[in-house]
Amino acid sequence: MKALMSIEISITNIPDLKLGWINVFGAVIVLLLVIPYIIFEIKFKNRKRRRMPGFVMMSEKFLWSVCCILMTVNLEFLEFGFDSKYFFVIYLIGNSVLLFTYYVTWISFFIKPSFGKRVTAAVVAVLVFCLSGVTLTNIFLIVFASLFGTCHIFLASQDEYE
Questions:
Q1: What is the pLDDT of residues 113-142, one digit of tens each?
Q2: Angle at Cα 101 formed by Cα 36 and Cα 82, nearest 5°?
């Protein structure tokens, strides 16, 4: 009970949570999402992939870019920040847990590649964008993360590892 009270007191001390032009938390999260993917692209550049329409690959890249921008940059027509201190806490804890899971999955994948690990990493990346969209109350991020997820998970499921 005492621990819950100390959490309640520390949450109430968080200042106003409207963000400025750049969401530093979002930028750090995007950077942390990119690092394992760059390693993956270098290590598995010659991987086999089933044939698929080119628009799916182009859509995934475009939607990834839009999600990254919506996570980090304040577009003037949106209110950029957290509606409550509890959303901020959920954002930090939830994304920390998801990023931990993301890194554990990638490390495991780099040790022994498998279909399940690759798709799991893709799903977790999408969940990071979705959680961020919900806690930032950014409907555009939620919509684009959903579209990105469809393409990203589909592409991840098309890779073959020997």
A1: 998 999 999 999 999 999 999 988 888 999
A2: 95
